[in-house]
Amino acid sequence: MKGIYEKYPRTTLVLFNIFFILLVAGLAEAYLRTKAKDPLIVYENKGEARVVRIREGAPNMSCTVSLDSVLWKRISDNAEFKPHRLRFDQDGFLMPSGVHSEPDQKIFFIGGSTTLCQDMDEESRFAYVAGKLLTDKTGLKVNTYNSSLYMNNTLHDIKALINKVLPKEPDIAVMMETCNDIFMLGAYGSYWEEDAKDLSIMYELEPKPNPIVYLLRETKNYLFPNLFQAAKSAFTPRQKKEEYVFSSKEYEPEQYAGDEFYVKRFRTNLKMFINICRVADVTPVLMTQAHRLVYPPDPIVSEYIDWITGPAYHDAHLSYKQYMHLQNVFTETIRKVGEEEGVKVIDLEALVPKTKEYLFDPVHYTEKGSLMVAEYISEQLKPLVLQGKSVAPQISKAGGAISATKNQG
User: Fold this and answer.
1) Nearest to 120 by CA among 143, 94, 145
2) Average pLDDT, whole number, for the chain?
3) Nearest to residue 75, comparing CAs of 346, 390, 304, 340?
4) Which position has the higher pLDDT, 213 or 404?
5) pLDDT interval class at 350 (50, 70, 90)
6) Fewer CB within 10 Å, N- or C-terminus of the chain?
7) Going by C-beta distance under 8 Å and a sequence separation of 6 or more, which residues neighbour residue 353?
8) pLDDT in tens, 93-145
9) Per DSSP, what are the bridge partners of residue 111?
10) Per mean pLDDT, which of 56-70, 299-313, 393-407 is the most reliable?
């Protein structure tokens, strides 16, 4: 029998050279680890790479979204079930935005799904409409940007403010949050809980994909994204639609943590947002959140709250009455913090009627509601836009400007 080299001379030679090169490289690495003088870095363990999370719309994403009719017919009474366009620019801001190439003023709206307004036509979302109205009312080129994502809370907003908004040199930053903070604190007792599914604002470890799988996947996604998606849909067995389980009685919560527990944490984030803005020479503005929470509740509203705060979804340990109470307490906290800090408060909760005409569920705007608040927001922001960053108005409880004083921060 011939030897391996005689049978496969080229293959054997290639393998031998590869082995020899790896051997030399390994010996050199071992020598440098133990013998080299003053090495810059000698790794024993490179550790784990951590990545700070920003919950945002994926940059450059474009898709259509629609509500799941099976679920939302149970928990809403004026929702649209047609597809709506959802697009984000290269910086993760909801489009359309930044319509003027050289704007006189830049206003950034930060919040959750009630600010995102994804379930309506693009040009009806209040952040975009308010910018157009401000341009018409002031004669200035006003750009508005929407840095929101469903289920974001005030701490997500602060991270977005620092990492996304401030680099764009904003003039005004507007934050609207309430319900998502209630969910987060009710379910996890903290904004910092790293086990809070995708709601955590903690770090995550950088993934380590298999290089061959990664290369093939990225090549496929670049060359044939729609073809592979169509093939996957065609050959994947259809699954039954998820069945949503609703309780036949109101959710019975665990022991209530107390108003102070929630307010202290929420209030801290409001003040953090305000002070970061001021240090960066940005005018902070707070908005209260419109809602349909009354007692006795509308059955649709009650069903929504029982679903989203109960064990089936966020498990926030809150009954309808407790949730409604916290919504009102947080709204009043926004007003009080605005008054204490001399910050403009746009009081949408006091403005918007608690009916399905304006809100298709407890907190999300219909198109009519969005256009209504856009008009009000533009009127409330008009003095700030005209005055620039040098002054901040004193405010009334309902958010109306009374007088202007020099901004001290």
Assistant:
1) 94
2) 85
3) 304
4) 213
5) very high
6) N
7) none
8) 999 988 899 999 999 999 999 999 999 999 999 999 999 999 999 999 999 99
9) 148, 176
10) 56-70
Do the beta carbons of residue 117 and residue 80 sit within 8 Å? no
Cis peptide before 284 (omega within 30 of 0): no
79 to 127, 292, 368, 382: CA distances (angstroms): 20, 14, 12, 31
Residue 357 confidence (pLDDT): 97
Q: Are 354 and 291 in contact (CB under 8 A)?
A: yes
Q: Which residues of 175-203 are buried (b: 16+ CB within 10 A; e: fewer)?
A: bbbbbbbbbbbbbbeebebeebeebbbee
What's the rounded Cα separation, in Å, for the pair 275 and 38?
45
Q: What tokens appear for 319 in the block? A: 């009954």
Confidence tier at 70 by pLDDT (50, 70, 90): confident
Give the Cα-Cα-Cα angle 128, 129, 131 (nearest 5 degrees).
70
SS3 210: coil
Contact (CB, 8 A) for 288 and 331 = yes
- Comparing CA positions, the residue from 114, 81, 65 lying closest to residue 373 is 114
- Comparing CA positions, the residue from 121, 98, 263 lying closest to residue 168 is 98
Instruction: Give the C-alpha distances (Å, rounded to integers) separating 290 from 62, 138, 176, 270.
Output: 28, 26, 10, 18
Pull the structure tokens for residue 102.
């050289």
Under DSSP, is residue 67 helix (H, G, I), strand (E, B) or coil?
Answer: coil
Residue 94: phi and psi, rounded to 5, are -65, 135
Please, are residues 131 and 196 in contact by the beta-carbon 8 Å criterion?
A: no
Name the β-bridge partners of 86: 63
Sorted by sequence, the CB contacts under 8 Å of residue 108 that are 6+ apart come out as 144, 145, 146, 147, 161, 165, 168, 170, 172, 173, 174
Q: What token pair was written down for 378?
A: 């533009």
137: left (phi over 0), alpha (psi -120 to 50) or beta: alpha
